Antirepressor protein C-terminal domain-containing protein
Amino acid sequence: MNELVFKSDKGTPITSSLLVAEKFGKHHYHVMDAIKNIINSHEKSCQFYVLSNYVDLSGKENPMYIMNRDGFSLLVMGFTGKDALDFKIAFINAFNKMEEMIKTGGFQMPQTFSEALRLLADKVEQVEVEHTKRIEAENTVGLLVHIGKTYTATELAKELGFSSAIELNKRLAELKIQYKQNGTWVLYSNYAELGWTSTKEEILPNGNIKYNRHFTGVGREALLKIFNARRMAS
């Protein structure tokens, strides 16, 4: 657990808001907000936190907090969840072990705060790489789950935030993705060959055959990207 805690130039164990966020499965900005709230609510608590920064994989500089044991204890006091207690114990053990190593000199530790920050930066990069890989793996699994499944317009309308399939179909028509022909919605030629839809045959009680259009997993993913991009741009 040494990687969770480092030595400051004052010889005290420290950790960072980024490591806490990663270990507890929280968004880093939520952890940052929690620390800011602590500092704003308790003036003396500012001695437990030092505002620093790190450089992410894109080269962008972002803020983070460095904290000692007391700062960590205040921060995670309200953290709850299935594994929260285990994570708290893991950090406490890491602090204890680090303090023991500092006292006994049994481990080669960074001797300055800047060295500790460099070690933290290395850990940040490792955390970001692992996080990116995990997200990519989750997305791949999610895509595989949806590839073999088909969806009605009603199902997609609900997922995309439309009030009904009628509203979704109207919007797709406005975006020149589909048009109506003989009472049936048909994709324009530049979308028709992309595998977005499939047709299912349904035999009615009277023996007649009805053809129902469903969206494929590929079509679902494409529409999600289209509408998410438009929401972000608006």
